[in-house]
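Q: Structure tokens for this one, please.
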Amino acid sequence: MGRLMARLLPEPGPGRLLVLCTAVASLGNGLYVTGGAVYFVQIVGLSPGQVGLGLSVAGVLALPLGVPVGHIADRFGPRGTTALLALGKAVALVAAAFAHSFVAYLLVAAAHGAAEQSGHVARGALVSGVMGREGRVKLSAYMRSVFNGGFSLASLAAGLVIAAGSRGAYLALFWGNAVAMVLVAGLYLRLPRVPGRPRSGTRERRLAAAVRDVPYLLVAQVSGIARIGPTVLALGVPLWLVTHTDAPRALAAWLMLVNTLMVVFLQVRLARDADTVSGAARLQRITFLVLAAACATVTVTGTLPGAVAAAVLVGAAVLFTFGEIWGEAARWGLRYELAPAHAQGQYGGVFATGDALALIAGPTLVTTVPDRLGATGWLLLTALFLAALAAGGPAVRWAERTRVPEPVPEAKVPQPRHG
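A: Here is the predicted structure, written as tokens:
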């Protein structure tokens, strides 16, 4: 048990406290994400399409907030900004309990999504400020491992609430998540304070610095393509399994169990080489190769006997998960290492724009293309990841060439004593 905890937790200190924040947040998130959509359909009376539209609108509206929120984190300090956004999420969850129409649901979903996505940006700057260059990528891996485990446990608990089906049980999900976020906000404030940066230059230039960094923007967009991989596994593969193969239907759910266990136990170990630009770039190349291989593997399952198709799909799920693990590690390394130390929040907000394709077009792409085109659709997804592989190296090298060296603090020279 001790070895297991050592693998899932960093050394005692600020890093472990950040992981604790992630664990508490993941439990609340798992409860809400799993049960919230069902609540709005079964209790409030919205259609599944309306719920899906609300989530999509929330995601789209949250994307442009990353840069200004990141700038606020840089200016006033990421610790207080992250805690404030956690409280904002708690307020949105409380409001969700009183949303009884589609318009009210849209407003709540937008507020919740804005606080959630902006919180990721501010927390990234907080991790960098608290852990420093040597520890931020490794801690990000710990946090993701713990988040996946906590989210999965909470999803199982939410399943019991869904089985009960009462309004009171569903509302307990909202209240529970809100309380969790208040607790998380308090835990953030126990971390060491990361000072903000004083004003420098005009407001327009400060806000535009990251947005005008075209090489960094390009790296963000290419890196974001890797996040289509988890969407393929969560949506595309189960739909394909059920409609185009003879594999057992229950396997569609079990594949995500394979994914969760792999992320929980392998994320920290496989992220070790991502704390430099060269290491992160290498992991990104491996990511796109593995994701392309996974898509090509699924291509053949439509013509295989049920048991064989099931075995091949499990192998593809393993490949997709390795791609997810390496892809996230590469994103952390490139996001942190290519951004200036004084603007980690603002640059983190810009890097988050790379999620746009996966967030907006990903679900439609991975479900519609294979369903309509069959094996050819999977080959097109393979080509997408190979194109990202071809673009990734030149994008990273361009970004490296255009970095401005960080100023080195002047050494303090002892003054001679007179007397």
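A few notes: Residues 408-419 have pLDDT under 50 and may be disordered. The CA atoms of residues 64 and 353 lie 7 Å apart.
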